Amino acid sequence: MRSASSTWAVIVDLVVDTVDQSSALSRDEAVQAMSAAEAVGRMLVAAGHLQQHPITLVVGKVHCEITTVSGTAALTLEENLNPVPGSAGADDFTVYLPSPAPLQEQVKAAADSHVRLSDAVPPAPETKAANSGSLIDHEALRRAVTQR
Fold it and tell me: Distance between CA atoms of 81 and 68, rounded to whole angstroms?
């Protein structure tokens, strides 16, 4: 169990460590963005809004929704606080802050304070079409069989 400040610090570490995997992005910029959102982030945590309305990190093809859990569920939940893989080739990131009714003005002010923060609805995650092509290179398989 963590305080709102401790929970926010864990969220910051997750975002910063995920962004930091990209050689094109600055760890310092991620730290600055999350620092700009700190006050409203702690409010979102303390009021329980992140249980239903996630913070969404979009970095390259990574689309990560960050939520919190409280009450008895927090006692049994297993956390995975490792950086989210897949952002190594990213050249852009945005942290989308949820904007629940009682905190809309504070969230907007935080989002307006840093270019990497947004209070907009996050984009839908990119999905690959199920039938985007064969998973087997039939020509390579034929060559391998005929070369035996």
Answer: 12
Q: pLDDT confidence of 77, banded at 50, 70, 90?
A: confident
Neighbour count for residue 53 (Cβ, 10 Å): 16
Higher pLDDT, 143 or 6: 6
CB of 1 within 8 A of CB of 68?
A: no
Confidence band, pLDDT 50/70/90 cuts, at residue 139 = low
Is the four-CA dihedral 23, 28, 31, 33 of positive or negative sign? negative
Amino acid in the structure at residue 8 = W
Task: Please name the helix (run of DSSP H) or strand (run of DSSP E) that holds residue 72, with its range, or none.
Answer: none
User: What amino acid occupies position 99?
Assistant: S
CA–CA gap between residue 114 and residue 8 (Å, rounded): 18
